[in-house]
């Protein structure tokens, strides 16, 4: 399954009891549709994501970055300390593609925009 969304917070690296590292982050996806009355309804879905392949990716997964994720989704349900039922979606991520929008990409774009290199001025893009 693929999802495209925006990180809601900076990624965190955690260690399991078996000393494996996992990168945890949260992604919000937006969808909209029109109901029977013709009103536009906006719907946001939140995914708690886990990436096990490399902890280094946490450095570039910053709040606001748009990512395209490939992986498996699963639902979970639990009862909170207050006795209320809760539900959430987990996304076990196997591939991450960055689309920008976070702190790192803004820094790269600002730096690239200040280039005075004349050789690149005639590029068609």
UniProtKB/TrEMBL annotation:
GO molecular function: single-stranded DNA binding
Xref: Gene3D superfamilies: Nucleic acid-binding proteins
Short name of any one Pfam family annotated for the protein: SSB
Keyword set, alphabetical order: DNA-binding
CDD domains: SSB_OBF
InterPro entries to which the protein is assigned, alphabetical: NA-bd_OB-fold, Primosome_PriB/ssb, ssDNA-bd
UniProt-annotated stretches for the region Disordered: 80-125
Domain of life from the UniProt record: Bacteria
GO biological process: DNA replication
Name the UniProt record assigns to this protein: Single-stranded DNA-binding protein
Taxonomic source organism: Flavobacterium granuli
